[in-house]
Write a structure and sequence with these properties.
The complex is a heterodimer of chains A (about 290) and B (about 290).
Chain A: H1 6-42, H2 48-52, E1 55-56, E2 61-62, H3 65-96, H4 101-115, H5 118-132, H6 139-163, H7 167-175, H8 180-208, H9 212-215, H10 237-247, H11 255-288
Antiparallel strand pairs in A: 1-2
Helix pairs in contact in A: 1-11, 3-6, 3-8, 3-10, 4-6, 5-6, 6-8, 7-8, 8-11, 10-11
Chain B: H1 2-35, H2 38-41, H3 44-49, E1 53-54, E2 62-63, H4 66-97, H5 100-115, H6 118-137, H7 145-169, H8 173-181, H9 186-197, H10 199-215, H11 218-223, H12 241-248, H13 257-292
Antiparallel strand pairs in B: 1-2
The chains are: A mainly alpha (about 290), B mainly alpha (about 290).
């Protein structure tokens, strides 16, 4: 190979790099196919009525309003459980934790928690929240289950944000006689919280699209009313899509509704993602100034 | 006074940190306690090695998960066959071929793919991939292991791409420079120096992607047909471990052997993914150590 003429080497490289471009192209194509299919077939059914009314006539007509509201509620609950605990854990790991075996155990647990299958979180939610805590299948049990599932994501995102605060900020404050908590509170958190929130939004966007953890902890097939308390069941967009595409008695008839639900779900998830990206961009700009 | 307050705050944060260890342990123990009663009625060896899963049979119910394990491994391996070459190729493109500007645009595209909810991917398996497979093979239905593999490949691609790209990016510059200085062109450098040097990072990425695929529920539940029998080919419907839990937990009376057996399947899933995570963790840790030197 060492003495091979330049042209063969060059040819190999040209083919090789084209193959890599092809791989990238396939990934982009997948994304285009996904979006094209959902948008082209789902857009027609979207109307004000579709977004603001409940399903009618055995879910063959009407809108998906209760599912939108349910997903909104459960995501808010997830945030309430996951964000403070995730931030606290990240603060401990980045600011207080010594380099010890226990710290390594905590880090290992976080990585493993994020690898636990979502259906296993569902089982855990049934065993702990629904049965052991006796909450029954309800909004609260689903929120707690999703909160636990998003915890590792929130921790990782928050720690990234804490890491990006320069050490000198902490040292300056400590040198002036502030205690560690004082310097964290006044000199670290104000700079880290926006970044923490950005990462957290990305995690919540994923939680909003999850189905398996809520299947048995609180999501309902069909409810004619909106949930009024934490102990009510709720409809959710991802579960509704699952029902409409596999469990409904007239699957072909409700296919447009399924497409519409998929579209609303995707748009919701991407609006959340987009807001996180915009927020991150704005913050970066502000810090540079 | 100040010190006391400091110490209290510090221990509160410590407890918060400990929470994740407790959570992981709690998941394991709760699965275990809910799974154990299964084995009062079912022999452990039968549970693992028998392929016949029929908990609600009238005369003699049977609880063998072998066919589900095989189905899970089938769709997982199928997805890796698609996703690993494609993922590594894309990662290599991003790290070695794309200009910085193209990379700025292309990387978010991979991230967007990661953001699509699994239930939407499953839906596309029904309305898009399924009919395509049915038409290509002449079968009545396209809901089978192949469909699941394709969808799982799409789902595990983002993990494999972004982690492989990290691994390629952390190969020391001196390696690449040495190869280029010896007359290797960029392609040779990529194939013979960078990818081998990053191989353990890429392996770890693959294992994490595999963990995702094994644990994925909604896509396989919706797109693989869910026939609870030993699969013979990729063109047959299969029913994975995750799908079995998702289908049956909703209908089963609580605290029966059947109920507990679903937790036993959950425990098997937990152990599978735990081992995959642990091994990829160890590989990554060693790799980072070596790359630092």
């Amino acid at each position: 190979m060492k003495y091979s003429p330049f042209s063969i080497k060059h040819l190999q490289q040209t083919f090789g790099f084209h193959f890599l471009r092809f791989c990238m192209g396939v990934v982009i194509l997948i994304l285009i196919v996904v979006f094209h299919d959902i948008f082209s077939k789902g857009f027609g059914i979207i109307s004000w009525e579709f977004l603001t009314t409940a399903p009618r006539k055995g879910m063959t007509e009407g809108g998906i309003y209760p599912a939108i509201v349910g997903t909104f509620y459960v995501t808010v609950l997830t945030t309430i459980f996951s964000v403070p605990l995730g931030m606290g854990c990240a603060i401990y790991l980045n600011e207080y934790a010594p380099d010890s075996k226990l710290t390594r155990l905590i880090r290992m647990s976080i990585r493993n928690l994020s690898g636990v299958p979502s259906i296993v979180y569902g089982l855990f939610g049934v065993a702990l929240f629904v049965e052991l805590f006796n909450l029954g299948t309800c909004l609260l049990a689903s929120g707690l289950t999703l909160g636990l599932m998003t915890l590792p994501w929130t921790i990782t995102a928050s720690e990234e944000a804490l890491k990006s605060v320069p050490r000198s900020y902490r040292e300056g404050s400590l040198a002036l006689g502030a205690t560690q908590w004082q310097s964290i509170r006044t000199n670290v958190l104000p700079y880290a919280v926006p970044g923490m929130l950005t990462g957290t939004i990305l995690g919540l966007a994923r939680a909003a699209g999850e189905t398996a953890p809520i299947l048995f902890t609180g999501a309902a097939f069909y409810l004619p009313f909106l949930p009024e308390s934490l102990s009510d069941q709720f409809m959710a967009l991802p579960y509704h899509l699952y029902i409409m595409s596999t469990q409904h008695h007239a699957i072909m008839q409700v296919r447009p509704i399924a497409y519409g639900t998929a579209l609303v779900l995707i748009v919701l998830v991407f609006l959340l993602n987009l807001s996180a990206v915009v927020l991150r961009y704005q913050l970066r700009k502000r810090y540079r100034e | 006074m100040h010190r006391q307050k400091e110490n209290i705050i510090k221990s509160l944060f410590f407890l918060n940190g400990l929470l994740v260890v407790i959570a992981l342990l709690g998941i394991f123990l709760l699965l275990l306690f809910n799974a154990l009663p299964t084995f009062k009625d079912v022999k452990f060896s039968e549970f693992i090695f028998r392929a016949n899963w029929n908990p609600s049979a009238y005369l003699e119910s049977s609880y063998g998960i072998l066919s589900q394990v095989v189905s899970t491994l089938m769709v997982t391996i199928g997805s890796l066959i698609i996703a690993v070459p494609l993922g590594i190729g894309t990662a290599a493109y991003l790290s070695d071929v794309a200009s910085p500007r193209v990379r700025e645009i292309a990387k978010p595209i991979v991230e967007i793919l990661a953001g699509i909810p699994s239930v939407v991917i499953g839906f596309l398996g029904i309305v898009l991939v399924g009919p395509l497979i049915a038409k290509a093979t002449g079968n009545y239905s396209g809901l089978n292991a192949l469909n699941g593999s394709v969808l799982l490949a799409v789902m595990s691609l983002p993990t494999i791409v972004s982690l492989s790209e990290d691994a390629l990016g952390s190969v020391p510059k001196s390696y690449t420079e040495a190869s280029l200085a010896l007359g290797g062109n960029p392609w040779q450098t990529l194939i013979r120096v960078k990818i081998p040097a990053a191989s353990s990072g890429i392996l770890a990425a693959t294992m994490l992607g595999m963990g995702r695929a094994i644990g994925e529920t909604m896509t396989v539940l919706m797109a693989t047909g869910n026939a609870p029998a030993m699969p013979k080919s990729f063109l047959e419907p299969v029913r994975t471990m995750t799908a079995t839990i998702a289908i049956e937990l909703g209908e089963v009376p609580y605290y029966t052997t059947h109920f507990h057996s679903l937790f036993a399947i959950g425990l098997v899933l937990f152990i599978f993914t735990f081992i995959l995570n642990l091994v990829s963790d160890i590989i990554l840790h060693r790799y980072e150590k070596r790359m630092r030197v």
